[in-house]
Amino acid sequence: MNIKEIKKHIRVYGLFAKTSLMQQLEYRANFIIGIITECTWLCTKLLYAFIVHKTNAEIGGLSPDQITLFIGTFILLTAFYTGMFMNNLGSIPWRVRRGDLDLMLVKPISTQFHLTMREVEYAIPIPNIIGGTITVAISWSRIGLQAGFANIAAYVFLIIMGIVLAYSFFLVPCLLTFWTVKVRALVEIVYNCWDFNSMPMQIYGKWLQRVGIFILPVFVIANFPVMALFDNLPPLYLVWGFIAPLGLFFIVSKMFNFAIKRYSSAGG
């Protein structure tokens, strides 16, 4: 994809975001209910931080405030995931079955981009952005973290890579809908892997950590950015934090193209 195509897709995404906001604000009661519901979820995540501080628990040598920084980063990443991808990926099975994909195939933009980025959710991310930012800021201040430019740059970079990895990781089971109708159970199992990031991966055994890093790289999403911020990320992990997201994105894109070539429209 050349620069011109990239600019075109950025403009299209801006239109998607604007249209989604207008549609959601038409039903303001639903919008407000969505925010309230997500606030409840946010409170359950912050309850972990409260319990950690109340018990003064340490995990793998991490202090309660350091653990809270992991939780805050996870909440921020949840905002990006729910805002950009969750609704789109969750709607793939019924779009394929209902025939919406037929119309997307004739649009002058990438079908994968259109199918997976069409809707932008606003209500759900709002509490997570606010709560995650405040949690990270308070934890950072209490720790007295003196992170250098390289550490902060690595933190931001790995968060971006975590977003790419989350997109690719959770798209995989949704693509199975091109071959089989019932994929909901598998999708739910994979989606539940997201909550493995709600606490530092040090709470799990060594073998499970390796699985969650190198086989099903879910720990790369939210753990690696904070580890880089603490200057506690081995060079191998830093390289893997770059290779895994881009590699999986490449594989998923190939899978998507393979599925599209064998797709039969709703009309047969």
Provide a concise account of the structure shown.
By secondary structure, the protein is an all-alpha fold. Helices cover 75% and strands 0% of the residues.
Describe this structure in words.
The structure is a single chain. The mean pLDDT is 89. The protein is an all-alpha fold and 268 residues long. The chain has helices at residues 3-26, 28-55, 64-90, 92-98, 100-104, 111-117, 125-143, 149-175, 184-192, 206-215, 219-229, 235-261. The protein has twelve helices and no strands. It starts with a helix and ends in a 7-residue tail after the last helix. The chain has one domain (3-261).
Overall pLDDT, averaged?
A: 89
Largest sheet: none
As residue ranges, the low-confidence spans are none
Number of helices: 12
State the helicity in percent bands. over 70%
Protein topology:
Elements: H1 3-26, H2 28-55, H3 64-90, H4 92-98, H5 100-104, H6 111-117, H7 125-143, H8 149-175, H9 184-192, H10 206-215, H11 219-229, H12 235-261
Helix pairs in contact: 2-3, 2-7, 3-7, 3-8, 3-11, 8-9, 8-11, 8-12, 11-12
Output the keywords.
single chain; 268 residues; mainly alpha; globular
